[in-house]
């Protein structure tokens, strides 16, 4: 027996989302340039589809939803670059955001129940961390490429030289450090081999003989090495050591060359290899903690951010390796592609942070009982659509479109609340098409009557009474008309409400059968 799917009723929810998208799109295109508006709607619908896919049990769908949300966040950020001014940006993002909130609530629910896992919030939190790591890595790559770090490393290695006394003492310290690291690395390697063979057992035993603990090293030896480190940089000691080597006819020259750097390179390589083993182990432990009890689920949620970071890094690497350069400063040209990747990742990171903040705000409002959890997206989306309609009036939106936008906002809220009520009581797939049709039709009829009434008063009665009235709508008149429409519609909707709740087709057939039986009696 499966749990009841108490999401909003499918028919009304689909109608609500369709009305929100179409009206928001028409109003947005009527106010600003179409390109940023279309881009914003593309990003918003990607986010809505991603949230729908994210709240499922199939990991493939969760991974696809994560990718869609990251793509949508990136497109939303790119919309900001297409807007010509601040108000165009507000309009180009406001209408798509309103439609997105409604579609999310209609398809999957914007705020989940308190006892359910919020996959969207978890995905945004984990993606934020992954994107931060990606930004840091791209910045490091940009700097390394700009200063040509590999060539710098080659020049440092080839030109590496020390004074023989300094080299002699640092070799001793390096050997002690390598032994200490080897002791830790041996334990790590043993943990990586759960069932060692005879060959691996012998190899690990030999490493145990080489490695040693810090406390196992004799104190006089540690004190001697420390004292040598203090003395090695004194000019007088260096001069005396040079005289000592000069006193050795053949061996002195060989030791002077060996202590000057050649022996340090293989020792440094070994130390780096041991450090790499320890660092990889730390990263492995961190990843185990990060992925939690269900690594597959966590990786599926992070797929979008991982793909974005890795894809941009590989793209920058391919362009750089191909010799395509982009100047980022008067003197540096090699790191331009990594710089572009950094900017793109920062844009996605900002969009993810803003989206996470919005979800947190709505969750707090639901927790404070300011909003109902079941209609949080419908209420927020319809309210934002109403506000954006009034702002569009100040941008030259036609009066009829202002009234249509205000009416659509009320229709979205009422139809969404009705769909949520049906889904909560009877389930998403309940056969309540007749009830939904009657309710939505009544609401639409009331709103259409309110629009006709306002238009009649504005364009027939007022010009007759005051012929000199301007034909345009000011902000005050738009706000007044919107409030009048809101009051009329709210009053009519209250009259249209019924106490019995939604009826299924089975209930109606039962009622008709009962009424027929009563008539026959």
Give the topology.
Layout lengths: L9 H22 L2 H21 L4 H24 L3 H22 L11 H28 L2 H10 L5 H29 L5 H13 L8 H13 L3 H12 L4 H9 L4 H28 L3 H7 L1 H19 L14 H32 L8 H19 L4 H28 L6 H33 L9 H22 L8 H16 L1
Question: What shape does the CA trace take?
Answer: elongated
CA radius of gyration: 35 Å
**Number of helical elements:** 20
Stretches where pLDDT is under 50 for at least 5 consecutive residues are 497-521
Question: What's the mean pLDDT score?
Answer: 77
Distance between the termini: 41 Å
Q: How is the biggest beta sheet arranged?
A: none
Structural class: mainly alpha
Q: What amount of the residues lies in strands? A: under 5%
Number of strands: 0
Give short descriptive properties of this protein.
521 residues; mainly alpha; 78% helix; elongated; membrane; DUF7519
Question: What's a concise summary of this model?
Answer:
This protein is mainly α and 521 residues long. Helix content is 78%, strand content 0%.
Report on the structure:
By secondary structure, this protein is mainly alpha-helical. It has a domain at 161-260. It contains 20 helices and no strands. Residues 497-521 have low confidence and may be disordered.
